[in-house]
UniProtKB/TrEMBL annotation:
Pfam families: Ribosomal_L4 (PF00573). This is Large ribosomal subunit protein uL4. The keyword RNA-binding applies. SUPFAM superfamilies: Ribosomal protein L4.
Length: 209
């Protein structure tokens, strides 16, 4: 599969690159995509939610009143959930939400996601470019040139580029990552995936394993 390479001004360079059919042209597996996205979202949960139960409350252990003869219900502890400041019944507890997923399934999911984007013509190959300094307006100019200023976009770099990353950090709809950070969720969440030329080799090497 050959794709035209464009520059940061949105113009064609006259060159084309070959995208591997084993990565960008497979039959998408929807269930693999579902499992990988589900795992990614589960791993975003901290699981630190916790409410104290009656055995964790600090307070007196004395019996509040005599058992009989008061005309009211029995009460044995100030830490009872029935009283203000008492423990909570069946409250949330800390929990680990991490899920295991086979590496081959994750690899299949990412190739399926890229293949779906390829079918939708939502993948662009961009010539490598450099920003001289971190400046959001310079990155916004690139987005406008590519027609992505109002779309969710994912830029995939071949290597860490601090100027490019810092320039995009304030933009809610754009994200810049390296090819080693690529995930099924980020691919599916973007309207347009922008692959820099230097990222192609790393993506294909990682997903062909």
């Amino acid at each position: 599969m050959k794709v035209a390479v464009i520059d940061s001004k949105g113009k064609e360079t006259g060159r084309k690159v070959e995208l591997s059919d084993d990565v960008f042209q497979i039959e998408p597996n929807g269930h693999a995509i579902y499992l990988d996205v589900k795992q990614y979202l589960a791993h975003q949960r901290q699981g630190t939610h916790k409410a104290k139960e009656r055995n964790e409350i600090s307070g007196s252990t004395r019996k509040l009143k005599k058992q009989k003869g008061t005309g009211t219900a029995r009460a044995g502890s100030i830490k009872s959930p029935l009283f203000r400041g008492g423990g909570r019944v069946f409250g949330p507890r800390t929990k680990d939400y991490t899920q295991k997923l086979n590496k081959n399934v994750k690899r299949l999911a990412r190739k399926s996601a890229l293949s779906l984007k390829s079918r939708e013509n939502a993948i662009v190959v961009l010539e490598d470019f450099v920003l001289e300094q971190p400046r959001t307006r310079d990155f916004v100019a690139v987005l406008k040139a590519l027609g992505l200023e109002n779309k969710k976009s994912l830029f995939v770099l071949g290597d860490i580029n601090n100027n490019l990353y810092l320039s995009s950090r304030n933009l809610e709809r754009s994200e810049v990552i390296t090819n080693s950070e690529i995930s099924t969720y980020k691919i599916m969440n973007a309207n347009q995936v922008v692959l820099l030329e230097s990222a192609l080799e790393g993506i294909e090497t990682n997903l062909k394993k």
